[in-house]
Design a protein that fits this description.
Helices cover about 40% and strands about 20% of the residues. By secondary structure, it is α/β, with parallel strands linked by helices.
């Protein structure tokens, strides 16, 4: 019995030690999102968020479950930004994010980042429908790539939009999903333990067939095609574009490839304000566009690096300054 107790104590202490190492080093943190029955998936409020991937990020969520960049100046305009992991940017520190630089320019701008990984256009637009009036936004900006003009509803915890009698309607979160054991019992444990969250992610990667890619550092990863995807636009996206509030909303094209003529023609036909960020970055970086995605610290490519964020803040400020000066 004594030997059994000793083994159990050793295992428990080892698990506690691993948990402490994971948290203190920032390699992994517990699950950082919560699911609100009305508003969907959000960051835990007023939480330090640490991410280690192709870059390293240390940031903090605000009281609404987003990340805010305040100018702390009187008369500041409130700008909201929607998008996916690129504008979310969990690869750089809070102080290096392009919205932090934007909020510290001469023209006072308070920037709220409502972006979240894996969001597509309809997810972002649903979040806009929910929060724009609540946050009293003066202008909303949507980061899009050439993959975002189709609709891909795969996460039951993210509100989206659908057509009902030719009108845009918010899709409610699946109530059965909210009552599932995953949400009621497993998710609370994942929010408390970095080790459990690490194990859960490892199991998910195995299920997705990514084991070789991870074990051999991407040596067996199939090269992503440079060709633009088929130009598919869902009926919901068409309706969003037809209903676009041109005085209040702007699209920022952030794709790695030039925007297709088909998409560009559609935006122009609806007179939708557009900032072609991809075009501006290529023009200003003198042919070394791919370097803006390379992170020297890890030797990996992926999302925008520090230099890209500095350049993006400059480009956006030039565009925004004309509107708000």
């Amino acid at each position: 019995m004594r030997i059994l107790f000793k083994h159990i104590a050793t295992i428990v202490l080892s698990l506690v030690l691993i948990e402490l190492i994971l948290r203190l080093t920032g390699i992994v943190q517990p699950l950082w999102t919560v699911v609100d029955k009305d508003n969907g998936k959000l960051f835990k409020t007023k939480e330090n968020l640490i991410f280690y991937n192709e870059g390293f990020s240390l940031t903090q969520s605000d009281g609404n479950g987003f990340v805010s960049y305040d100018s702390n100046k009187e008369g500041a305009k409130t700008l909201t930004f929607y998008g996916d992991s690129y504008s979310e940017a969990h690869q750089v520190f809070y102080r290096h994010h392009f919205l932090h630089a934007l909020s510290n320019k001469k023209v006072p701008l308070d920037c709220i980042n409502l972006s979240m990984s894996d969001f597509d256009f309809t997810d972002s637009y649903a979040r806009y429908m929910i929060f724009d009036s609540i946050l009293s936004s003066d202008h909303a900006y949507f980061f899009l790539s050439d993959d975002d003009f189709d609709q891909d509803d795969t996460d039951p915890f993210i509100p989206s939009v659908h057509l009902e009698n030719e009108q845009l309607k918010l899709s409610d979160i699946d109530s059965l999903s909210l009552e599932s054991s995953k949400v009621k019992y497993i998710a609370p444990l994942l929010r408390k333990s970095a080790l459990l969250y690490l194990i859960r992610n490892a199991i998910r990667q195995i299920e997705m067939g990514n084991s070789l890619e991870i074990l051999f550092d991407g040596q067996f990863t199939k090269k992503v095609s440079d060709e633009a995807p088929d130009q598919i636009i869902s009926p919901v996206v068409y309706k969003i574009l037809r209903n676009w509030d041109r005085r209040h909303c702007t699209i920022i094209y952030r794709g790695k490839r030039p925007m297709s003529k088909e998409y560009l023609d559609i935006l122009q036909s609806y007179q939708i304000p557009l900032i072609n960020l991809e075009q501006e970055l290529r023009k200003r970086y003198n042919g070394r566009y791919e370097d803006l995605y390379y992170h020297k610290g890890t030797g990996q490519s992926g999302h925008w690096n520090l230099e890209a964020h500095q350049l993006i803040s400059t480009i956006l400020y030039e565009k925004l300054n004309r509107r708000f000066r």
